[in-house]
Amino acid sequence: MMKQLTAQLQKEHLEAWRRKRVLLLLLLFVAAGMMSPLFAKLTPEITKAALPEGSSISLAAPTSLDAWGQFFKNVSQFGLLALVLLYGDTLAGEVERGTLLPLLPLGLKRKSLVLGKAGYLMLTWTIGYWLSFGICYGYTRYFFDDQLSRHLTAGVVPLWLYGLLLCACLLVTSALAQNGLQSLLFFAIFFAGTLLLGLFKRIDAYNPFTLGSNNAAWLAGTSSLKDSLPAVLIAIFLLFIALWWAQASFSRRLI
């Protein structure tokens, strides 16, 4: 199984290079890391320049908290969204194009296929996310010499885990769908459900999808990540459940 898993990871990497997915994601994650502190630094000047001549406005000086707030938004809206759009057909596309028909009779196990795609998808998110984080960290330290971001780990690690969870859920929708478009539709419905779940603030401590929305508060220390420990544990549990569901669903479907 390990041999098939390694071969699947190599196949995913070669396909991603051939279809320019790696290059596009690399550019987006690098841009998210660079633009976040730059935008935070330049926002007051941009706002003043946009005012009518003779007008004045008092703006607070930007801080490292503003830079990391931009990072949380940009890496989710650009990096994670692009990952979902580019890999929405990760399993459904294989079925739609018929690329698995000659491989399955040769002994390719569907479990190895699903786990290989899961591993590559999560590895891509992990490398892209932490690359973007490193760039943002360097620029933020250069532009903002303050001590306001004292809880950096509490802010960035939950968002990374949130991304892993969404990757696993994307595999489920792709395993259930007939094509890439249907997979993205299923994922959009699922994501809308997570947003509706966020309306019930009383269950925030148990809602695993708050790991992608409360990062700024955890970073600033206005909210404690310890209070959301149940959400972290549930997120890890759901991640493994989603991987099992994707594998089980794909193993039963006709190809």
In brief, what are we looking at here?
With 255 residues, this protein is mainly α. Helices cover 72% and strands 0% of the residues.
Structure description:
The chain contains nine helices and no strands. The mean pLDDT is 87. α3 packs parallel to α6. It has 255 residues and is mainly alpha-helical. It has helices at 2-18, 21-50, 64-86, 92-97, 110-143, 152-176, 180-197, 215-220, 229-252. It is 72% helix and 0% strand. The chain is globular and about 70 Å long. The relative contact order is 0.14. The longest helix has 34 residues, at 110-143.
Jot down its keywords.
255 residues, mainly alpha, globular
Biggest sheet details: none
* pLDDT < 50 runs, ≥5 residues: none
Number of helices: 9
Content-based structural category = mainly alpha
Give the DSSP E fraction (strand runs of 2 or more residues): under 5%
* Mean pLDDT across every amino acid position: 87
The strand count comes to 0
Write the H/E string, N to C: HHHHHHHHH
Tell me the distance between the termini. 21 Å
Tell me roughly what share of residues is in helical segments.
Answer: over 70%
Task: State Rg.
Answer: 21 Å
Shape: globular
Strand and helix layout:
Layout (H helix, E strand, L loop, with lengths): L1 H17 L2 H30 L13 H23 L5 H6 L12 H34 L8 H25 L3 H18 L17 H6 L8 H24 L3
Helix pairs in contact: 1-5, 2-3, 2-5, 3-5, 3-6, 5-6, 5-9, 6-7, 6-9
